[in-house]
Amino acid sequence: MVCNLLTFQLHYKGKSNIMNFLLRLTGVVCLFATTGATAQTQLSDPEVASVAVAANTIDIKYAEIAKKKSKNSEVTNFAETMIKDHNAVLGQASALVKKLNVTPKDNAVSQKLNSDAEKTRNDLNGRSGTDFDKAYINNEVAYHKAVIDAVKNVLIPETENQELKDLLTNILPALDTHLQHAEMLQKKLAK
Amino acid sequence: MRYLLAGPLIYCLLVSCGERQAGAKNHIVLIQGMKFQPAELTVNSGDTVTWINKDFVDHDVTEEQTKAWTSSVLPNGKQWSRVINSSTDYYCSIHVVMKGKLKVN
User: Fold this and answer.
1) Which domains does chain B carry?
2) What ipTM was reported for this prediction?
3) Do B98 and A184 touch (CB under 8 A)?
4) What is the pLDDT of residue A183?
5) Which domains, ranges and CATH numbers included, belong to chain A?
């Protein structure tokens, strides 16, 4: 099955690390797409829940780095919104899995997300000033695009439980708004 | 003599205010799906607009140009009202791409 590759348009120039990051993120998207492409379900509902938790937690951790390192108030305000909103999603997910008596199950997709995110965090932690701001926001644009694609094309189709499906559907507008916000900042930082 | 006129004058002011309030409408804007619904609303001067947050994330309602007024943070289920006397653009200062317009006839 052909991987569903996304093209990320970057305004950030110069650092080879960001290209390594893109390759890793593209690999994650391929992993998402491949698992959804076969006729049989590849992710169980507990595994879908684990991926959803991982995806939200990862963005919270990126935002925590941004709040510590950025001196740009628009970037730190964006990061604060990411922390609040993704924690709100985690709250919804936590309440639902409790209600459904489901335990999120770690799996290859969530593990890959987490291991790649650790590399990205190390990359971000090595940057400072406007270099950091651009890398963080560029990452947010790319990450939200990948997550939106994965939720729409892999997680929702793979989910059996209707309430979990509905939760994933309901978070899409927030993810889309985050992406628009990040793209707005990306244009400003590119000037 | 001044005090004799004050009573009827105050009465007239109260009646005219009451008449304006009686004609004023309350309009609802839902904050749902990360949008103000409706995003553009036309009202008469003196009408009230009530925003209700139906999303699970916090929002606010803030005048866009000069930040002249704001609802402050509205968690899920909370609402906030304002009497509208002039056209204005507003937005959510938490999710700055969320925008709305109020037009006064």
Assistant:
1) 24-104 (2.60.40.420)
2) 0.80
3) no
4) 98
5) 42-190 (1.20.1260.10)
